[in-house]
Amino acid sequence: MLNKNITKIDVIFFMVSPYNTLLLNLSLKTSFIISKALIIFGFVSL
Fold it and tell me: Which of 24, 29, 33, 44 is most buried by its number of CB atoms within 10 A?
């Protein structure tokens, strides 16, 4: 679920920079947890 604005240069920059890769991984994990919680909440509300 990458943003459409992210270009190949940005991807290369992320791959080169460990700090940014760590931030990206954290944000991906956070968004995954949030989406998982929303799905569970959606099933419960049904």
Answer: 24
pTM to 2 decimal places: 0.44
| Single-letter residue type at 12 | I
SS3 2: coil
Determine the longest span between alpha carbons in the chain, in angstroms: 45
Distance CA 10, CA 6 (A): 6
State the Cα–Cα distance between residues 9 and 44, nearest whole angstrom.
Answer: 42
Write out pLDDT tens, residues 24-39: 788 888 989 988 998 8
Residue type at 45? S
Rounded distance between C-alpha atoms, residue 37 and residue 4, angstroms:
25
